Amino acid sequence: MRAPLSTAIAIGAGIITLLGLFIPVEPITSLRGRLIEWAVLLAGVAGLVAIVHLLSVHWRKMTARRNKNIPSAFLLIAFALTFAAGMVLKPGHPSMQKIVTHIQVPIEASLMGVLAVTLTVAAIRLFQRRSGWMSFLFAVSAFVFLIIGSGLLSSSANIPVLKDILAAVNALPVAGARGILIGIALGSLTTGLRVLLGTDRPYSG
Amino acid sequence: MSEIICPYCGSTNTIDALTCLSCNKSLYDDVETPAGLPQQDGMEWLNTFRGLESDSNASPSTAEPGSESADAESEVPEWLARIRARKVEEAPPPEEEPLEPDELPSFINQDADLPDWIKEIKSGDIPQPLEENTDNIPDWLKSLAGEDNLPSPPAPSAMPGISLPDIPNDLPVEGLDEFNFEALTEKASPIGPVDLPVDTSELPDDLFDDIPADQPPSAPDIDRPDLDWLDERIETGIPRGGPLAQPLDELEWLNPPTTKQTELSPSTEEPEPAEPAQLPDWMFESVEPTADEIAESAKFDFAAPGSSLPGSGDEELISPLQEEGLPDWLLDDEAAPLVPGTEYLPEGSSDIEEAQMPGWLHAMRPVEAAAPNLIASEEENRIEASGPLAGYQGVLPGHGVVTHYSKPPVYSARMQVTDKQRIYATLFETLIADETRVGAPAAANTTTPQLVLRLVVGLLMVIALLGVLILQPGFAVFPTLVPPESVAFYDTVQTLTAAATPPRVLVALDYDPSLSGELRTISTSVLEDWMAGNSGLAFVSISPTGPALAAELVTAAAVQSPAYISAERVINLGYLPGGASALAALANDPTRTAPTTMDGLSAWDSLLLQGMTAVSDFDAILLLTDNTENSRAWIEQVKPAAGNAPLLVISSAQVAPALQPYVQSGQITGMVAGFMGGAAYEQLTQSPSGPVRGYWDAYQGGMLLIAALMFIGAVVFGIKKFVRRNKKA
Prior knowledge:
The complex is a heterodimer.
Chain A: H1 4-22, H2 26-62, H3 70-89, H4 94-124, H5 126-129, H6 133-149, H7 160-197
Helix pairs in contact in A: 1-2, 1-7, 2-3
Chain B: E1 3-5, E2 12-14, H1 44-49, H2 52-55, H3 68-74, H4 78-90, H5 106-109, H6 116-122, H7 129-136, H8 139-146, H9 166-170, H10 181-187, H11 205-209, H12 223-236, H13 255-261, H14 281-285, H15 291-298, H16 314-317, H17 328-335, H18 359-362, H19 367-370, H20 372-375, H21 378-381, H22 399-403, H23 419-436, H24 447-471, H25 484-497, E3 504-510, H26 516-532, E4 536-541, H27 546-558, H28 566-569, E5 570-575, H29 580-588, H30 590-593, E6 620-625, H31 628-642, E7 647-651, H32 656-665, E8 670-673, H33 674-685, H34 691-728
Parallel strand pairs in B: 3-4, 3-6, 4-5, 6-7, 7-8
Antiparallel strand pairs in B: 1-2
Helix pairs in contact in B: 24-34, 25-33, 26-27, 26-33, 29-31, 33-34
């Protein structure tokens, strides 16, 4: 067996956690809570490791002999300044929070704006690149939900026929989302059983 | 190959030679086989046996050429001619002159219509069956005929006797199995039961009446005269004449039967003995069976296969295999006494007559049993030299097989492909490659129209949205139809804030800065209501940017609630790493999972969270999310631990469809989704200056603008494609 110790630890931890969920007995629930706390700590450490790895990658790109990546230097400099300010000012300081609200939020919001324009152009050119029944159906559905999402028809929803039509159209994405959630649940259940039975061992490398 | 072999001397001559250099005879003369010489067909022994040397001069081949008889007999086989010549020599001189053909009945003269045997009768040529039939008759039959088992005389009515000489001729050896041995034993007549080839009873009687009585074997009294001449020969010891060249006393094997023959009823015909020169020597070397052996043979029982088989000529049949050459088992069987008690005799077996095994059946012993030494192979004589069986003889050879090692053959795994198959494989591979290859997009005419299109669409949207935001035209109408989940959300908030004790709400901020514009706008009015009810708000996030966004959100909402003291009623528990695991830990024990605030103070010792140890101690859980997976994690991990605390969700429009099932199942108490939900909530709160209302014109205008651009673009490109297709057509 490959990595028997890791397999035993993973299966044991999974079984204890599952038993603690269904059997609320004190020793098991305490042990289950302890294991989950260890998982949270490991996730925090993994975040730190990811940060270190990100810095090392950009450091190698910046110090490469050929094709040096200049933006990597900006990232390293920004990280150093933010880390220093956080260590000095603490994360709850208003100035530290403005780093997020005045830099990160506008940048990401701008990217969402660009994405909106790009999606609109792609929708306009849909019939130029690929025409067919599927393209026509997608265009019609997008057009209909844009009209409904805008709230233009909500003021006239008292009309009996239109009310029923809007209710039926709004039920379509809900039905699709319910199917997706059922698929996700079955996939999660299968993955959990595979890990508990030792069939799937993502921890063994 | 250019040689000529002399047909006289066999010497080799050149191709141009006309005469042989050795014997000076012509090389091209026809060489005839000398008359009188036997044919070199490998049958010299038979000719010698038949006494050809002495009779060669009498062969018909010596007839003068040119005669009619010589021409006719040239087509006759040699053996037949020789038989005929001998028959002429051995034929007894006629005692009387035969009848003239005119004296015979007319139908007798019709020789062409009569069978051969009748012709022979007519011509008085009684066939001499013994000469030819002694070779066909088996020895056991001869012995039976020569002993006391002479055939009984058949009834004159059943056997006219005239056709009896043909019986031995037509009796095949294979037909011996048709003999009735029981009748043979009982009646001591081996010839009696044999069916005649021709039923003489059907012949007309006048055919025999017309034959002169002085003809040699006449039909009515052929039995008695035949026996008479035989008795006469026995008594006088003088042959009747004819073919017997040997004196009768040399035929010792014939004497005992003849003595007994007189005691029995006369047989229909006694075959004459053959010439000793025509008989093999072993016939004269045989030992005549004694009377006891004959009696014992009569008692032979087939139920006892191990019993001996004396008599019936067995000794003569196996005479080439001498007694010392016989296997032991055979000798033992002969010497072993017959024990009747050991046999299986069924009931009534005493009535069954004992049968007698014929000699030819006894002779069918396996050859290996008779001569085992001849078949003994070299393998059986080999003595094992090694191994645990060393010293044994006749052991199956195994040493050489085991020790002999041969390298196993190596087969090539390379596929043998012919040129034709290779061509087909290449063609098939080409077909597959065409199917899997993605077609390149149609090349644009120029890059300028695409860039212009993007710029036009972008500028149009920016200008339209900015113009609406700045001008606030107010053309958009708030929705009059409010979703039920928004109503439930509103009712829950109003219920909790209307309580005497200010509620404590766990606010889970879980959205990215990219969507903070939508969620912050929607959440601001909701937080204003909570702040209006002096609710305690504990923020926690599983996103790294969550704590900062929470501070910003509180700041924006507190503007509309100046009496609300955020420092006392709001606490930020910070960021929880680990995703779903962090939420599970928070649901299990929030005091251990998020023990401190963003400032490093003990969170659960503060006035807001004092006395709280579990998630269920909160009055409500408010989730602000734009992520489906994180929403599921909150619903699945935290909601079960929340107890009766309602779960309220403020989500972006893109997550709303995924959360609708949880709303319908009751896991989510109320939900405000997107700008539509925010507008509906503000519609319910009757807030005249809500943040959603300020963006509502721009939001609805932007959505309609995008829909219009998509419609216009589809129509334009559709028309262009239709025009191009018509031009190509």
